[in-house]
Design goal:
With 128 residues, the protein is mainly beta. Helix content is 5%, strand content 48%. The chain contains one helix and eleven strands. It has one helix spanning 104-110, and strands spanning 5-8, 10-13, 18-23, 32-39, 46-52, 58-60, 68-73, 78-83, 92-100, 117-118, 122-127. Strands 2, 4, 5, 6, 9, 10 and 11 form a seven-stranded mixed beta sheet that branches. A hairpin with a 6-residue loop joins strand 4 and strand 5. It is globular, with a radius of gyration of 14 Å. The N and C termini lie far apart (40 Å). 35% of the residues are buried.
Length: 128
């Protein structure tokens, strides 16, 4: 069973930074991607960033490019999302997800696949 647990998040001021982490005690044995999504009430879930775990290729949404950076710890099966220069519009519930055989460019541009393993989400609030 693949489980996904997010941590980090919280409250930050505009221009500040936060770091999210996503950990899975067990990862799929074949090709997979780990991605961050975010959602605010009444809006669709938005793809934020994605990494193909095997090849290391990454994809970021235009709204966070040059401000958010992913890094990973292969030993701990953990993906980090460093969020710098935060803006109030970054406020959302952030979700980590794992998908098998999902190119990151597709995940970010067109949305998540029908099946994946999702975390419970973690709140990020940026005050102006």
């Amino acid at each position: 069973q693949v489980n996904v647990v997010e941590s980090g998040g919280g409250l930050a001021q505009a221009g500040g930074s936060l770091r999210l982490s996503c950990t899975s005690s067990r990862l799929p044995s074949d090709d997979y991607a780990m991605a961050w999504f975010r959602q605010t009430p009444g809006k669709q879930r938005e793809g934020v960033s994605c990494i193909n775990w095997g090849g290391g290729s990454t994809e970021y949404s235009d709204s966070v490019k040059d401000r958010f950076t992913m890094s990973r710890d292969n030993v701990k099966n953990t993906l980090h999302l460093q969020m710098n220069n935060l803006k109030p519009e970054d406020s959302a519930m952030y979700y980590c997800a794992i998908f098998r055989f999902a190119p990151c460019v597709v995940v970010i541009k067109t949305g998540p696949p029908d099946f994946g393993w999702w975390g419970q989400g973690i709140q990020v609030t940026v005050s102006s």
